[in-house]
Specification:
Elements lengths: L2 H5 L5 E3 L12 E6 L2 H11 L4 E5 L16 E12 L5 E16 L8 E7 L6 H26 L13 H11 L4 H9 L3 H30 L12
Antiparallel strand pairs: 1-6, 2-5, 3-4, 4-5, 5-6
Amino acid sequence: MSEALERVHGITRLPLFPLPVVLFPGTPLPLHIFEPRYREMLADIQITNNLFALPYWDASETEATKPEIGTLGCVAEVRQVQPLEDGRSNILTVGIVRFRLEDYADTADSYFVGEVSYFEDDEEEEEFLEQRAGAVKDLFLRVAQGTRDIAGTRGELPYLPEITPEHLSFFVAAAIDFDIKMKYEMLAMRSTGERLKRLHDFLAQAVQTVEERAKMSKLAQTNGHGKKRIDFE
């Protein structure tokens, strides 16, 4: 059993905090808690296990009042809480493990409570995943470098910790600013290799555009001939 599954072992019912956000395992998510029902939720989980379920749900896209059965999401663990004077709170959460909403529990709580089941990626050949993860990491850093060059900023590139290919895929998927529907598709995937391939294809296209723009940006700064840019007053 993985460390993530051990963290939720025996827990089949969790408070639900539906948001139009895709949270991935191992990635952080700061939240601002202000609605009374979620203030109650936070108080309740702080005396139990600090866990709640965050299903992806965009209320603007549906007439339903809550996520449908079968909706996917990620269990969030509250790591830090900053209480505010008026009862609101700023919290820092980290994704633990993905889940599927199986049913709604009938409780007296003001917030929704769901019956959930958990899932992780299927096992795949390790060497194959390491190779694919290495290619994704290289492309990601090239895009980051190019983006920094375009902005004319300095400093270190994004830190990529030494993590498994599965968690690298989650880290990169969370870091890239692309369509939320694609993020949800990646959350649903149970193949690390397929997720890494999708990320590789996306980054391979992006890096060509970014590096070309970075090259043009550098030329513009030197007036196209390697000298300092002339400022006209």
